[in-house]
Amino acid sequence: MDKRFAKVQSLVRGLDSCGSWIIFPHVFLDYDKWQRLPYTWEEGLPTKLAAVCEAEKLLRPLYRQAEQKFRHYTDPRSPDSFLLRFQAALNRCLSDLREALGRCRTQDTAALVNRIGALLTPEQVFQDMEQVHAELAAAYPLPELTRYFSCIEYMRYDPSEWEEGFLKLVSKAFIRHGYNLLPAISQIEEDAGSQLAAFQKAFDTQAAINISKHITAPVQAKLPILRELLERGAD
């Protein structure tokens, strides 16, 4: 087989796997304070309501942070979005293919090379994938904040449990409450990663379908003729 043709054929076959090229998209939250322990008077809060209000107040900015990092991959205007990374990858693949195809140009193959080159345009693929991206953004959102309020753990310290009689009654005044945000934070990170992975998988699958439809299949239909012309010219 002609080496020039083998290179073109290999690059054409590789087009369908030209995806968004983001390995393990992730959302890791940055936080310092994530719990309040109820076991000391200074640290604990006087009521369960106070603990709930403070815990939910602290979780809100962390959720907004997760939204921002989630959009880093899903906002089509972000330079690291699935859409723009895919567009850049496909442009690189097509550039390599055009270069390899140019080496196949001879007097006999010039007209065919021109026809194949005219098929190596990404515009229709990009147009289709913009629509796909919008549909997937709606299908794989980050879950609502209220989902994570139920993941917060609350703690209660009641010293009266170890007392009797009058001391038990007095100790009731020292009941304190606390919370632990770590389960909610971990769930946000896990959900964001799962949604992004599902988004990317669906996006790359549709990208392969559209590349095949608009570029790979039409080009492959002409490759046998190019191979024959190159082999005939080598004889």
Topology:
Elements: H1 3-15, E1 35-36, H2 48-74, H3 82-102, H4 110-119, H5 123-139, H6 146-149, E2 153-157, H7 165-171, E3 176-180, H8 182-234
Antiparallel strand pairs: 1-3, 2-3
Helix pairs in contact: 1-3, 1-8, 2-8, 4-8, 5-8
Task: Please tell me about this protein's structure.
The protein has helices at residues 3-15, 48-74, 82-102, 110-119, 123-139, 146-149, 165-171, 182-234, and strands spanning 35-36, 153-157, 176-180. The chain starts with a helix and ends with a helix. It is built from 8 helices and 3 strands; from the N terminus they run H-E-H-H-H-H-H-E-H-E-H. A 3-stranded antiparallel β-sheet has the order 1-3-2. Helices cover 65% and strands 5% of the residues. By secondary structure, the protein is mainly alpha-helical.
In short:
This protein has helices spanning 3-15, 48-74, 82-102, 110-119, 123-139, 146-149, 165-171, 182-234, and strands at residues 35-36, 153-157, 176-180.
Flag low-confidence runs. 162-171
| Strand line-up across the major sheet | 1-3-2
Order of helices and strands: HEHHHHHEHEH
Q: What is the strand content?
A: 5-15%
What's the mean pLDDT score?
90
Keywords:
rod-shaped, 235 residues, 3 strands, three-stranded antiparallel beta sheet
